[in-house]
Design goal:
Jelly Rolls; 10-stranded mixed beta sheet; PCO/ADO; metal-binding; oxidoreductase activity, acting on single donors with incorporation of molecular oxygen, incorporation of two atoms of oxygen; alpha+beta
Length: 245
Amino acid sequence: MPRDNMASLIQRVARQARITFRSPAGPAFGENLHRLQQLLDEVRAEDLHLAPRGPSAAAAAAGGGIPWGGAVPPVSYMHICETESFSMGVFLLRSGACIPLHDHPGMNGMLKVLYGTLRIACMDTLPPGAAAPPPSAGGGPCHRALYRSRQHYTPASPPCLLSPHTDNLHQIDAVDGPAAFLDILAPPYDPQHGRDCHYYRLLEGQPPAGAEPPGLPREVWLMETPQAADFWCGGEPYPGPRVCL
């Protein structure tokens, strides 16, 4: 059964997000961010009227008017609320789905797993250096980056945090089944203000079979790429408690 405070918890999260990101350069930002992190850590799937589901449920939720040749999108988004300072919603990933490596220019963010397991790779962009990108790169622009971490997150994990300069690039994979996470971005994406989403490909080969993967953190090269043809994000109605700001 949902908890008694389910109707107020997501509202409290939204209000704290508004307070926190209204003045991200202010003296109280760190304290407000910590409070937001604490509230976000309390959120569970049942608070938003969500439950894990398989492919058949995902197809039913997508509805009959699917504009992708009848295919069910690998990822869906449930919009909860948006202001000039932040946006909040839920991403739902089908089993095996991946949100490709992408950036959040000049943005803060918080991600809390609601159900399932996510593998999240986090990277930072680095200033240009003297070294040249790999000769086989070709294609789009190449960027130096620091591959910081690659961890599994579950509903028992604390929120994954990103800032404009730390862990700003993410790749998110659903592991061993469907997964969902609550997502806060501050400020929201806005191409007219330089906050557009860019996608990247890691320029390094796979280690030989049986070999240990390279250690982290380590410096890597990323190539900017178009959005992958097999990745798109559908939309679904948000079934949880209403949020008013």
